[in-house]
């Protein structure tokens, strides 16, 4: 049986053999990145980046770039105003025939960004303004791949010292690392950005389970830790930001409750804890309801999904006001560990709708007994993961799940909402469960889920694979240049280099299909010094862009993105909002245009705080986003 599983793991890698390049698994990178099918930057201009080749095809009067620098490319333009219903997925999903995008056969490319990120990124948060990625795991193992500057940490209750860092700040451009000191264990914790862009993190393991910790934005800032700030221990809990910028934290092992996160330096008492029987009802013998999926609805209520059930909670009355149909075909939360994201919230110019639709997408997971079979049974049995992707508009009380099939099974994955509104499903395994050495068959191929379609073709596109297994404890961050940072993976209780799936400290960047070099002609540049960067709810603001050629307003899309706290397939507070364009003022300077936009109407649509603002043209993101702050 051992040989059988090894063959299953190795066999898919032979299919990534492209143009004479190959890689071995699970060996480390030595020197340069060993990227599946990628032959280096010099190949981009000759054979489609090592993946595809073909002539550039451009329609609708667009100007072509000479040479072949990416996949076969075609600009497709829908007929304005012609919207129809997609019967294959239900009446609530609109085929957007007015959608403008440049289609390409380019399936993305991978680059090794950092050989040693210092820690295995169990948790990952992109921090605003300073453009650094915060990565951390746990203090419990007392080891990592980077040392602390003196003095070492005293291990509570022992005579031991721990001289390793378990938290680092990484510059997303240079890869420079700065180790940060932690005293209270962050293992399987939660978090979110506050109004000023600081990370407020809650819970963890052992002495960290009732801790609130804060990291400010500066070159010398260190963690501020407040043990005992929470009334219940929050291990495997989920934190959500409300419309007024306050935080709630839900669940955690052995605590089917929730509480509001207290202000800095304050402590909750047991009177501040609310019993939440829904988390009792959704608890399997092996849990399957930890790290529940929790999102703020556009009406101020809270959507909560645990195991296979979902409800709407009024956070003011503490009453469940609606329950949706059960999602069939297994469990979705830890340790079955599917993944979820809030789909883009689409706003119109001069928005006046009473209810703004909000939808959740949940993909993958595992059978209810997957953890029992993989972790508790001997010999271990690795059950196949789920191939389901399910979508629900939770602002409609009569909503039902619309279920699609992914190209392959996936658990332990992540879902990154891209600047265009499409979703990158990445990382994870095909069989097993969350837990130490409890999963097999790494799913090396990301999949692109199209948020809107013209009604033809599949909503899923299989993209080019990484050659690094990203299993349990993997993470991601969408970056200002529209690439996706990929990090983490540790199926071991400690740092092991000789395991079947070694503890992973390498950091990669993935370029989605919209970064096909052939599409670079569509990438606009935001002129930051001429653009508003502080927004007030419902008010007009201006963004200035520069690019080559004449810009057609109908092909523009402006989105704002709240970077999530990512861990265990949970992307807490990830939110992308498409803004309504009020005016488009052409040629305010040579090749320069102003876009006048309307900020979201209130904090239930977009919580106060920092967002990355992207301008997309023909479905291609700008060269670099800018940070904007929505003021309360």
UniProtKB/TrEMBL annotation:
InterPro entries: Gal_Oxase/kelch_b-propeller, Gal_Oxidase_central_sf, Glyoxal_oxidase_N, GO-like_E_set, Ig-like_fold, Ig_E-set. Residues 122-514 form the Glyoxal oxidase N-terminal domain. Residues 532-630 form the Galactose oxidase-like Early set domain. Residues 1-20 form the signal peptide. Keywords: Signal. This is Galactose oxidase-like Early set domain-containing protein.
């Amino acid at each position: 049986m051992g040989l059988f599983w090894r063959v299953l793991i190795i066999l898919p890698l032979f299919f990534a053999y492209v143009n004479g390049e190959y890689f071995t698994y699970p060996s480390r990178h030595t020197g340069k990145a060993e990227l599946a099918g990628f032959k280096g930057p010099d190949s981009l201009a000759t054979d489609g980046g090592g993946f595809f080749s073909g002539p550039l095809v451009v329609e609708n009067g667009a100007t072509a770039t000479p040479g072949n620098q990416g996949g076969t490319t075609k600009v497709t333009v829908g007929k304005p105003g012609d919207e129809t219903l997609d019967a294959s997925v239900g009446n609530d999903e609109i085929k957007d025939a007015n959608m403008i995008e440049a289609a390409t056969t380019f399936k993305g490319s991978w680059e090794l960004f950092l050989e040693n990120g210092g820690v295995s990124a169990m948790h990952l948060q992109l921090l605003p303004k300073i453009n650094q990625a915060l990565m951390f795991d746990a203090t419990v193992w007392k080891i990592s791949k980077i040392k602390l500057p003196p003095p070492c940490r005293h291990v509570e209750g022992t005579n031991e010292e721990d001289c390793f860092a378990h938290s680092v700040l990484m510059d997303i451009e240079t890869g420079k690392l700065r180790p940060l000191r932690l005293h209270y264990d962050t293992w399987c914790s939660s978090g979110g950005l506050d109004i000023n862009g600081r990370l407020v993190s809650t819970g963890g393991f052992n002495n960290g389970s009732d801790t609130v910790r804060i990291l400010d934005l500066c070159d010398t800032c260190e963690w501020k830790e407040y043990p005992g700030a929470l009334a219940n221990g929050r291990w495997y809990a989920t934190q959500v930001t409300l419309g007024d910028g306050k935080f709630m934290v839900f669940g955690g092992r052995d605590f089917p409750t929730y509480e509001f996160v207290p202000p800095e330096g304050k402590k909750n008492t047991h009177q501040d804890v609310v019993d939440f029987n829904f988390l009792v009802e959704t608890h399997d013998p092996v849990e399957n309801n930890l790290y529940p999926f929790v999102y703020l609805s556009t009406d101020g209520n809270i959507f909560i999904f645990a195991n296979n059930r979902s409800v709407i909670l009024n956070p003011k009355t503490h009453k469940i006001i609606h329950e949706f149909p059960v999602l069939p075909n297994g469990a979705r939360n830890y340790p079955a560990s599917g993944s979820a994201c809030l789909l883009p919230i689409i706003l119109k110019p001069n928005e006046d709708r009473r209810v703004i639709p909000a939808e959740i997408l949940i993909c993958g997971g595992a059978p209810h007994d997957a953890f029992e079979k993989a972790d508790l049974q001997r010999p271990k049995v690795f059950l196949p993961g789920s191939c389901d992707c399910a979508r629900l508009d939770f602002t409609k009380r009569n909503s039902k799940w619309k279920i699609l099939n992914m190209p392959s099974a996936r658990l332990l994955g992540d879902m990154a909402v891209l600047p265009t509104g499409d979703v990158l499903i990445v990382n994870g395994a095909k069989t097993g469960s969350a837990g130490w050495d409890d999963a097999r068959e790494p799913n090396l191929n990301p999949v692109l889920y199209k948020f809107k379609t013209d009604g033809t073709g599949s909503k899923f596109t299989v993209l080019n694979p990484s050659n690094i297994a990203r299993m349990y404890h993997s993470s991601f961050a969408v970056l200002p240049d529209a690439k996706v940072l990929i990090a983490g993976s540790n199926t071991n209780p400690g740092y092991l280099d000789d395991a079947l799936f070694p503890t992973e400290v390498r950091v990669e960047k993935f370029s989605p299909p919209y970064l096909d070099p052939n599409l670079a002609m569509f990438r606009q540049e935001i002129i930051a010094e001429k653009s508003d960067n502080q927004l007030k709810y419902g008010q007009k603001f201006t963004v200035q862009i520069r690019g080559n050629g004449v810009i057609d307003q109908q092909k523009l899309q402006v989105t704002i993105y709240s970077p999530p706290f990512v861990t265990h397939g949970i992307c807490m507070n990830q939110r992308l909002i498409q803004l309504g364009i009020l005016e488009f003022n052409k040629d305010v300077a040579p090749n320069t245009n102003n876009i006048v936009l309307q900020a979201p109407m209130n904090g239930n649509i977009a919580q106060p705080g920092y967002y990355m603002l992207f301008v997309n043209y023909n479905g291609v993101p700008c060269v670099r986003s800018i940070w904007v702050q929505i003021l309360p």
